[in-house]
Amino acid sequence: MKYAIQSRNDKVSNQLMDEAIDYLKGFDFTYDNEEPDIVLSIGGDGTLLHAFHKYSHRLKETAFVGIHTGHLGFYADWQPAEIEKLVISLARKEYDVIEYPLLDVTINYREEKESTRYLALNESSVKSPEVTLVMDVELNGKHFERFRGDGLCMSTPSGSTAYNKALGGAIVHPSLLTMQLTEMASINNRVFRTVGSPLILPAHHICVLKPVRGPDFMVTVDHLQLLHKDVKSIEYQVSKQKVRFARFRPFPFWRRVKDSFIENGG
Ligand code: NAP
Fold it and tell me: What one-character-per-residue DSSP string does 59-91 give?
């Protein structure tokens, strides 16, 4: 089996990476940074986001495993002390593969420039670089609302515990093929009106954001942030692709939510 390791690059994560490489030498594993079957991400959820984007061109062939060297994560849910157990399970192929939904992001431009496409594991957000964001929100080709405020965020179910949660979005179980639109500080008064609640959209729906003011936008895709100029529209849809995680033991999603946000009661 071919594997690669993505480390957060701090001392503890790099030490654990060396340990994992040592353990794996004892089994039939080859280090392959280009075409790994398994990617061990050592660090936090942020590290797994980096690993995901590095291998997002081969999601069908690659499964991810996250080991946390800080606090418990949603993607990084293995403890460093479990590394030996994890390597043995990998070698014996004693694991299941679970899949989580992803978000397709397409940015279309006014001029004859080719559209840019991204795949998000957590979310994509849109802000205006200088002024209040003003965009029309279209759902399935029909005008829904004119948004005025700081920005909009479309998250995946597994990203619902990240930025989405801080914006007041709902936590969504990653078995649900959905995407969720949340507002950032919308202006709501007698003149301007938005729905004011997060929207959870099913897989066959498409959400398009169209600029009303300013053609330039700051668009994030997970940890990536880029200024896109001359934007005509930004399209969001639940992707047909999925991310695959190797699961060696049950660790229910709601247990992870409880341990992360309420109490780590064991
Ligand atoms: P960062 O600022 O270093 O990390 C932001 C925090 O989000 C970290 O604590 C990270 O956990 C956590 N996180 C990432 N994915 C998560 C998930 N699916 N569920 C729960 N927590 C999660 O930035 P980064 O490492 O480049 O990560 C980018 C992500 O930061 C974005 O995708 C966005 O979701 C998140 N973010 C959150 C806020 C907010 O909550 N107000 C604002 C901006 C961005 P680890 O410590 O385990 O890495």
Answer: TTT-EEEEEESSS--SSEEE-GGGHHHHHHHHH
Which residues does residue 220 pair with via DSSP β-bridges, in sequence order?
125, 225
Mind listing the pLDDT tens digit for each residue in 238-264?
999 999 999 988 899 999 999 999 987
Is 45 among the residues known to form the active site?
A: yes
pLDDT one-digit tens code per residue, 119-130: 999 999 999 998
pTM beyond 0.85: yes
Class of domain 102-240 (CATH, top level) = mainly beta
Active-site choice (22, 32, 37, 45): 45
Q: Where in the chain is the domain with CATH 2.60.200.30?
A: 102-240
Ligand 1 centroid from CA 251, angstroms: 20
Amino acid at 121: L
Q: Whose CA is nearest to atom 18 of ligand 1?
A: 159
The SS3 of residue 101 is strand
| Domain range 2-95+248-265, CATH architecture | 3-Layer(aba) Sandwich (3.40)
